[in-house]
Amino acid sequence: MKRSDIIFLLVFTGLFIPFFLSHRLYDSFLWFSREWAFTASFIKFAILATMGEMLGSRIKGGAYIPKNFGLIPRAVVWGFLGMTVKAAFVIFSGGVPLIAGHLGMEDTAAVMAGGITAPKVLLSFCISFFLNIFYAPVLMVTHRVTDTHIAASRGEASGLFRMPDVTEIMTAIDWSSMWGYVLKKTIPFFWIPAQTITFLLPPEFQILFAAILSTVLGVILAFSARSR
Q1: What residues make up the domain containing 205?
Q2: Count of domains forming the chain
Q3: Of 3, 62, 139, 209, which is least surrounded by CB within 10 A?
Q4: What is the pLDDT along the chain (228 residues), one digit of tens a residue?
Q5: Which residue blocks in 62-178 are alpha helix, DSSP H?
C-alpha cells in the first residue's frame, strides 16, 4: 500500500467518523439533508462520486489524480448530476407509489413511510426499476459526454465555461461498450438491486447511499476495464 492509498483511505473514512462521534454533527447532517436537500445532494456527489472516480483511476492507471484528470471540473459536474439524481428520486419515489395505488395497492404512502415490509420492498424495487430504466441511461450518457469534454479540455477548469461538442462526442462514444456493459449489465445487475436498498432507507440517507454506490460502481468499472 502506497502513501497515497493511506491518505485516500484516511480522508474517505474521515468524512464519516465525525458523524458517529458527535450527536450534534449527526443531527446537523439530518437537518441539512432535509432542509437543503439539493445543496446537500450537490456536496455529497461532488465529494463521494469524484472520490469514486479517483479510486477507479488508481486501479486502472496507478494514480488517483493523473495528468489532465480535472479534479475540480469532475467535482462540479458530479455535483450538478447529484442534484438531478435528487430530482429523479423525488419524481419516481412519489410517482411510482401513486401508480401502484391505481393498480390496487392500498396505503402506498404509509407503506413507504413505515418499516421494512414485503410491500415496501416491492414498492422500492418498482421505484428502482422505473428510475433506472428511464433516468439512469440519460445520466450515464450525460456523464460520458462530460467526461469526454473534461478530457478534451485537458482537465482545465475553464472547460466548464465552454460548451462541449455534443455531436462529435456522441459520435465518438464506444456504443458497443456503453450498451453491452454499462447499460445492459450494470443497470439490471447492479443499479436496480442496489437502488432497491436505497429506497428502503430514510429519505435523509438515500442520496448519501446513492453517492456511495457511485463510488462502488467506479471501482467495479475500473476492475472491468483493467481486466479487458
Answers
A1: 36-227
A2: 1
A3: 3
A4: 788 889 899 998 999 988 888 999 999 999 999 999 999 999 999 999 999 899 888 888 888 998 889 999 999 999 999 999 999 999 999 999 999 999 999 899 999 999 999 999 999 999 999 999 999 999 999 999 999 999 999 999 998 999 999 999 999 988 988 898 889 989 999 999 999 999 999 988 999 999 998 888 777 777 666 555
A5: 71-102, 108-113, 118-134, 136-152, 166-172, 175-177
Of 126, 139, 121, 140, residue with least CA distance to 95: 126
Report the alpha-carbon distance of residue 130 to residue 187 in Å, rounded.
Answer: 11
The model carries a pTM of 0.91
Residue 20 lies in a domain: no
The C-alpha angle with vertex 125 and arms to 203 and 131, in degrees rounded to 5, equals 70
Integer Cα distance of 213 and 210 in angstroms: 5
Q: Is residue 25 part of a domain?
A: no
Q: Where are the beta strands (DSSP E) in 2-94?
A: none
- How far apart CA 86 and CA 211 sit, in angstroms, is 11
Q: Is the residue at 1 inside a domain? A: no
Is residue 206 domain-resident? yes
Question: Whole-angstrom Cα distance, residue 146 to residue 152?
Answer: 10
Residue 47 dihedral angles phi and psi, to the nearest 5°: -85, -55
